[in-house]
Amino acid sequence: MAGPVSPAHKPPALAAWWLARALPPDIREAFLGDLEERFHSEVLPARGLRAARRWYWLEALRAPLALPLPDRRGSPTAQPLNRSTAKDGVMTTFLRDLRFAVRLLGRQPGFTAVVTLTLALGIGATTAIYSAVHPILVESLPYPDAGRLVMVWEREKTGETSNLGYGTFRDLADGATSFDHLAAMSYWEPTLTGTAEPERLFGQSVSAAFFRTLGVAPALGRDFTAAEDVRDAPRAVILSHALWRARFGGDSSVVGRAITLGGVPFAVVGVMPAGFENVLAPNAQLWRPLRYDASLPHACRSCRHLRVVGRLKPDVSPAAARRELDVLLTRMMADYPTEYASTGFAVPSLHAQVTGGVKPALLALLGAVALVLLIACANVANLLLARGAQREGEFAVRTALGAGRPRLIRQMLTEALVLAAAGGALGVGLAIVGVRALVTLSPPDLPRLDAIAVNGPVLAMALLVTTVVGVGFGLVPAWHAARSEPRAGLHQQTRHAIGGRHAMRAGLVVSEVALALLLLVGSGLLLRSMQRLFAVSPGFDPDRLFTLQVQTGGPRFQTDSATWGYFERVRAAVRAVPGVEAVGLTSQLPLSGDYDGYGVHSESKPRPNPADDPSAFRFAVSPGYVETMRIPVLRGRTLDETDRGGAPPVVLINQALARRAWPGEDPLGQRVRLGDPANGPWRTVVGIVGDVRHVSLGAEVPNAAYVPETQWGWSDYAMSLVVRARGEPAALLPAVRRAVRALDPDQPIVRVALMSEVVAASAAERRFTLVLFEAFGVLAVVLAAAGIYGVLAGAVAERRREIGVRTALGATQRDILALVLRQGLSLTAAGAVIGLGAAALLTRAIDDLLFQVPRLDPVTYLGVTLLMALVAGIACWVPARRAVRVDPVAATRGE
Amino acid sequence: MDLRLGDLEQLVLLALIRLGTDAYGVAVQREIARRAGRDLSFGTIYSTLARLEGKGLVTSHLGDPTPERGGRRKKFFTLRPAGRRAVRQNLKALRTMTQGLDPSWQAP
């Protein structure tokens, strides 16, 4: 009957191996033979290999649950499940417990489902959050000896850190002995042409030692050489693996070929490996050498635009390196007294640098999710206790038949572990879904986004949590069962046992309420912070305003006047689009990560060291920008079409700069130099405009100087267009895009967004934390409410007779309602007091995340307490109504 | 001796009677699937057989190995007299219970 047996079509070996160990010896051979025979003769021909193997697995997994265990021959029903004999192996006892537990739980599907789901939510949420925490906070960065990687910043008098100028970097790279390598980097956004569509790419300009500093080498081709990192050296580029695959089809012959970037040929010298993760610029698709020398205008010491990363020598500490750099700085300051306002260097570890920004939020989330897990555990322990009450008779019988207490405790622990394992398995499933949502929701600046996944270490953590949770909540009822008087269960429960259990369940509910309230306070404070934050005016009016960035690249834009002419035409073309109310251009768009700062040097108040003068963000803007953004002109005038190249240079300043640079004086008519204190035109302050939140809504307003784009020393290669629509901005967008594209289809249009979206996105990290806190808060409240409900429902059921007697003796419905509600609400009140007290202490942990809300904000505390009371009231109401409906006759007639 | 049988026990005993000397796991499984339309797992069948063996209703012996079974031997089951008695008694109870009912309820 069986056809020729192909070796490839065999039953799964692992399943057979497991069965051989789980089956009793007397049927082992026959059973395995039967399975294999049926596998070949029926299942495989009828259903195919996959289904047949699945069938085999199913049979293998179900068999040990149905069958007598290895040591039990003869009558399977004669021997009770209570006593394990000395002959039994640990495995046998465990299997027996396991089978018993699975059967028992299968018989109570409702209970099992509720417990499994509760645990799955707790474990799933914890696992999902941990999958983000692990790569960011626990794992070291994906480089060899990552602990030796540090950043180098200049430290200013204010305590803030800043980038380095090229001269400073050169001196450090040549003079410092603490480092194996030092590398400088800046951003680079070339447009790739010569293939299909022109495409704007995102890359980095790096000094030659960049990849050696990180300790990674190209997978194809070679690394940059020092000879390529000098001015006028032949242009070289290294591609990321992703770009190489996407744009060059993974063709290895591209190494050695030239590609056109920004209209200029670059020789491809290498391709990075697929696994290379660049934490310094996660989006970078390609790299070119910096090719600076000290004679370049932007290579000056005060042109601080380079980030510097270094690899310390093996035995050098960051502190020792910093001391060495500080000595070098004193020498540099002596040589170039007007170029530095720094007090030294900061040398944080690269890991701290990359993760520092999100660390408080992630830790707060981890804490929040741990609270959810605790509440879930308390709830499950509560359910198990309630069930333990129903099983006291069973335990008494088993004790009477000779089961020792350790045996009973082991059984209960096994049951708890089975529940935890089911919850853990489902929880990991939820976590896999949750992580996807987490990554979608995550703020753009969350580091190591690609490394966030449910992987080995995360699963190990989930397993650990599951085990700890299983043992943890399993011990509560087990401990309780072990303490109770064995024989008592056969007759009637003793006061002691009932009282103990009630106290424990009440304690669990109180702690659930406390934990939930703690979470609610956290969510409430974050929510209020968010409200406060969005109540902050950005300084411009985002209503019906949208933006897009227009770039220039290629040989057509070699001269400043060509670039300015193009932007001028863009502005005119957009203004002509019907429905456009106003239009302007700016080199830097608020709240979008554009930073370009220059020193502001006043003619009337020279400082001995011009580097000590205030600095300001420089906005090269077109006429109409200030009006389009509706930035108020507070004094003087705005910029108009007459303020162009050749006309007297002018500048608008914001209130913050006016206050800081000329305290108590009139800034109008003052003359300033921007950038270089010794050269360049004097610009007259002709107007003072309102403050704009450039960095973020929560950060201090930075100084700002607005200059006409055509009066600046050079043309900016990319400008952001801001357009105010008369009607719906989204409807106008395609027409504006078409108008720009019609001027020059080769110039990429990027960063298209409504300004309201830009404002909202600037708080993305805050929103991320808030959304998760809210989700956890809701979950916590629901679980706590379920806990209150469970305890009261149990209490009402146990007190049926008492309630019946009370009713019979004349208690009104109101009295009975009050009786139950009092019990529930007093538990809630106790939990609330503890929870609020804990919140007052523990919200310290989220202090960094709050904005203009004190962490003891009474409105929040009061609000969440009322919310909790309301929910608790609803949870009490149902069992209270049930108590009212108790029929005194039926209840007192006996059991 | 208690000769009351559960539903599964009844099915398995009847399968043993039908199969005679060829009653081993696969054959029993197939017989019940074909006739009663119940696709039982081997775990269920063997646990039922173990229970019947424990009650002294059936006995077993090992047969010869065959290649399609991975060289493993079959375990054949046969009824003991007590098993036959139990089946008879249960069928009798069924017949008695259905006697005189509407013909559509008649037991076989």
Question: Could you write a compact summary of the structure shown?
Answer:
Chain A is of the alpha+beta class and 895 residues long. Helix content of chain A is 51%, strand content 14%. In chain A, the strands form 3 sheets. In chain A, strands 1, 2, 3, 4, 5, 6, 7, 8, 9, 10, 11, 12 and 13 form a 13-stranded mixed β-sheet that branches. A 6-stranded mixed beta barrel of chain A has the order 16-17-22-19-21-20. Chain A has a 4-stranded antiparallel β-sheet with strand order 15-23-14-24.
Walk me through the structure.
The complex is a heterodimer of chains A (about 900) and B (about 110). Chain A is an alpha+beta fold. Chain A folds into 5 domains: about 1-75, no CATH class; about 85-140 and about 355-495, no CATH class; about 160-340, no CATH class; about 495-535 and about 755-895, no CATH class; about 555-745, no CATH class. Helices cover about 50% and strands about 15% of the residues of chain A. In chain A, strand 9 and strand 10 form a beta hairpin. Chain B has about 110 residues and is an alpha+beta fold. Chain B has a single domain, classed as Winged helix-like DNA-binding domain superfamily/Winged helix DNA-binding domain (Arc Repressor Mutant, subunit A). Chain B is about 50% helix and about 15% strand. Chain B contains 4 helices and 2 strands, in the order αααββα. Chain B has helices spanning about 5-20, 25-35, 40-55, 80-100; strands at about 60-65, 70-80. In chain B, strand 1 (about 60-65) and strand 2 (about 70-80) form a beta hairpin. The chains are: A alpha+beta (about 900), B alpha+beta (about 110). The interface of A and B includes residues 1, 32 and 40 of A.
Structural class of chain A: alpha+beta
In terms of DSSP E residues, the strand content of chain A is 5-15%
Low-confidence stretches of chain B: none
In CATH's first tier, which class of chain B applies?
Answer: Mainly Alpha
- Tally of contiguous helical segments of chain B: 4
CATH topology label of chain B: Arc Repressor Mutant, subunit A
